Amino acid sequence: MYTFQLKKTYQAFALHVSFSVADDETLVILGPSGCGKSTLLNVITGVVHLDEGSVKQDNTLLVDTKTNTHVPIHQRNIGYIQQKSNLFPHLTIFENLIYGVKNRKSRAYRDELERLLTIFQLNEDVDKRPGELSGGQQQRVSIIRALMSRPSLLLFDEPFSALDNPLRIALREQLIKIKQDLKVPIIFVTHDLEEGYDIGDRVIIMNEGHIVEEGTTSQIFNTPKQIKTAQFLGMKNIWDGRVIDYIDGVSCVDIHGIQLHVNQEIDVGKEIKLGIKSMDVLYVKKHRIESDQRLNLFHGKIMDIKRTYNGFLLAIKVNDLSDHVFMNLPDYVVRTHGIYLHDRITVCINQEKIIVFEDRNETL
């Protein structure tokens, strides 16, 4: 396990974080541009020196400002894959992979190299030079080179960001396939939410050099505790409310004239912030409206429809609610039920999916 306590201050920015990553864990770091993700990785590698703090591998200190411990970069055994492949242009792919490797003639080394070349589909390219490969192929070489050094920690700094989407998906799938065998802690920095969800065992959300929230991938993406996290992940339905009643495990919350039922015990009279993902707002079919017994059913008017990569995002005006209620619908639902702009519509705000936030901060 690696444990980090990191402080680094610049004139207009300060990094101050504490976290750990287990031996077989992939920790994803998410956050807006300029939040300190890349600075964090540079501090871990030693490219940037700490002002205060420590880097510890199990019980071994690699960096400790209190004892003036600072293990040189080349002795930390950290694999670092960046956005650019940084291969030697004058060497072949095979020569790039074995460069500086002491045991490159051993059978075990050759077998492992052959295995990774097969997984990353580069067997036929070992005699080529980097300039003859695509960007995706060059990144695959960089990953293999890092893995062949048998690192004790792997760092990825948005390694697929410059690639086309099909290549990003393919490399992501290959990395997921091999990471189970590595038993090496991985810290993966990305701005791609889908990538972070697919790769991460645990997620840290950063903003302005600090950790906003951390938890398992499921916790962060499905039930974030902080408003800043929810906003960063794209949640559009976030409202102010006041609890007006509580009966049998269900709180009733007044939100500017409409009443939402929430499956949570909250003190009556308390002012809260709550939200729900647009995909958890449900469409109620016209012929089922009268017989539907669910709570949180509202009638409204569609004020906007925008196409998304996986369907449509609808903005719905509900009663006297000043904010629109946003709902995601798959393409086939919109087409099958003939849903159009300015139509009257009934929705169900799924009470089981409503999140009551721990903080009341409003912007990221």
Automatic annotation (TrEMBL):
<dbReference type="InterPro" id="IPR027417">
    <property type="entry name" value="P-loop_NTPase"/>
</dbReference>
<dbReference type="InterPro" id="IPR008995">
    <property type="entry name" value="Mo/tungstate-bd_C_term_dom"/>
</dbReference>
<dbReference type="GO" id="GO:0005524">
    <property type="term" value="F:ATP binding"/>
</dbReference>
<dbReference type="GO" id="GO:0016887">
    <property type="term" value="F:ATP hydrolysis activity"/>
</dbReference>
<feature type="domain" description="ABC transporter">
    <location>
        <begin position="1"/>
        <end position="233"/>
    </location>
</feature>
<keyword id="KW-0813">Transport</keyword>
<dbReference type="InterPro" id="IPR050093">
    <property type="entry name" value="ABC_SmlMolc_Importer"/>
</dbReference>
<protein>
    <submittedName>
        <fullName>ABC transporter ATP-binding protein</fullName>
    </submittedName>
</protein>
<dbReference type="InterPro" id="IPR017871">
    <property type="entry name" value="ABC_transporter-like_CS"/>
</dbReference>
<dbReference type="Pfam" id="PF00005">
    <property type="entry name" value="ABC_tran"/>
</dbReference>
<keyword id="KW-0547">Nucleotide-binding</keyword>
<dbReference type="InterPro" id="IPR003593">
    <property type="entry name" value="AAA+_ATPase"/>
</dbReference>
<keyword id="KW-0067">ATP-binding</keyword>
<dbReference type="InterPro" id="IPR003439">
    <property type="entry name" value="ABC_transporter-like_ATP-bd"/>
</dbReference>
